From TrEMBL:
Residues 296-358 are annotated as: Disordered. It comes from Oncorhynchus tshawytscha (Chinook salmon). Pfam families: GST_C_6 (PF17171), GST_N_4 (PF17172). Residues 338-358 have a biased composition (Pro residues). GO terms for cellular component: cytoplasm. PANTHER family: FAILED AXON CONNECTIONS HOMOLOG (PTHR12289:SF76), METAXIN RELATED (PTHR12289). Belongs to the FAX family. It comes from the Eukaryota. This is Failed axon connections homolog. SUPFAM superfamilies: GST C-terminal domain-like, Thioredoxin-like. Residues 45-138 form the Thioredoxin-like fold domain. Residues 190-252 form the Metaxin glutathione S-transferase domain.
Length: 358
């Protein structure tokens, strides 16, 4: 498998100009966990959802990779003109009211209802199965993706990942899904993913040819299966049998994350049948993976997003979250240069992990 990686995309001149703009009034400050060291923008589906949404509506923003939770204990959250808003749905409602953006304006009342139902299935059900796969069943691989530096980096990674794993298991038990066996959790995951594949069909986006907010929510979650869980059942499903979901993820990545580079070989599962017309990279291209056709109603500024966002380097904190806070506070850092993450160190699996010696 080829690991995705973030490539330097914005020049320091543009970044500095944008940072100056965002330090002024009416700046959107997005608080979220720091970038993983493998290139995926976030291990949190909700952080990835929120940042993708801001790019979809073409709103400039400044990332704070500080790990600081909102007053409600949430992540991600935003600050706008001294107002603080947390919870991804409340943030979207707030931005629609304050700034007049609306990705759902072309949806009928029935389509809005379907969009809401799909969003809640993804965020309240599929989310937990993905979290289980990342933070319980594949904890050691996820631990390698955390961005923690310094002489005690390995020990901190171990502590943070295992603390988060314990919290995920506790929250899953309270939710109810954690009371079932591993096999049952994966069965539920497969049902959710197959449902999404049926809903998407051969459409470009989930509600048709134009984007809506549900696309940001689904992308935030499916991207985890697509690019953070190599060799697992969700990756095998999305890159094999449910290839239309892989096509959707790649379409969103190319349109809204031009600096996030992946190799074409990474679009299909290595164990998939490459002779199948549904699983080959050629088939993906036939469905318009590389199309940048404008999908907003007025087709306004299709490429503006390529210079509307600034990026900060990794901080020493990175955790997964489900719109509930799990981490300590650090001082915010604002810098202009894009990150240059080192590849994670590979280590053999250990069925009974122990904290590394400092």
């Amino acid at each position: 498998m080829h690991s995705p990686r973030l490539m330097p995309f914005y020049t320091s001149e543009v970044t500095a100009e944008k940072e100056q703009e965002l330090d002024s009034k009416d700046a959107i400050i997005l608080h979220q966990f720091s970038r993983p060291n493998t290139g995926v923008p976030s291990l949190s589906p909700f952080c990835l959802k929120m940042e993708t949404y801001l790019r979809m509506v073409d709103l400039p923003y400044q990332n704070y990779f500080d790990g600081k939770l909102s007053p409600q204990g949430k992540m991600p959250w935003i600050e706008y003109n001294r107002q603080q808003v947390s919870g991804s749905e409340f943030i979207i409602d707030f931005l629609e009211e304050k700034l007049g953006v609306n990705l759902n304006k072309n949806l009928s009342p029935q389509e809005r209802a379907v969009s809401w139902a799909v969003t809640k299935m993804v965020e309240e059900h599929l989310y937990w199965t993905i979290a289980y796969c990342q933070w319980v069943d594949n904890l050691e691989e996820t631990q390698k993706m955390l961005s923690v530096t310094g002489p005690l980096g390995d020990m901190l990674k171990w502590i943070l990942s295992h603390l988060n794993s314990s919290m995920v298991q506790r929250e899953m038990y309270g939710h109810g899904i954690g009371r079932f066996s591993k096999e049952d959790v994966y069965k539920l995951m497969e049902k959710d993913m197959r449902t999404l594949a049926e809903l998407l069909g051969d459409k470009k986006y989930f509600m048709g040819p134009k984007m809506s907010t549900v696309d940001a929510a689904v992308f935030g979650h499916l991207a985890q299966a697509m690019w953070t869980l190599p060799g697992t059942q969700p990756e095998q499903l999305i890159k094999g049998e449910l290839v239309n979901l892989a096509m959707f993820c790649e379409r969103m990545r190319r349109k809204f994350w031009p600096e996030w580079f992946v190799d074409i070989e990474d679009l299909c599962y290595d164990g998939a049948d490459t002779d199948s017309s549904e699983g080959s990279p050629t088939c993906l291209m036939d469905f318009g993976l590389f199309s940048r056709t404008d999908t907003m109603e007025e087709s306004e500024a299709s490429d503006k997003h390529t210079h509307s966002h600034t990026h900060s380097p990794n901080t020493d904190h990175s955790l997964f979250d489900s719109d509930v806070g799990t981490c300590s506070e650090n001082e915010p850092q604002l810098k202009c240069d894009p990150p240059s993450p080192d590849p994670p160190n590979s280590a053999p699996s250990n069925p009974s992990p122990k904290p590394p010696n400092p």
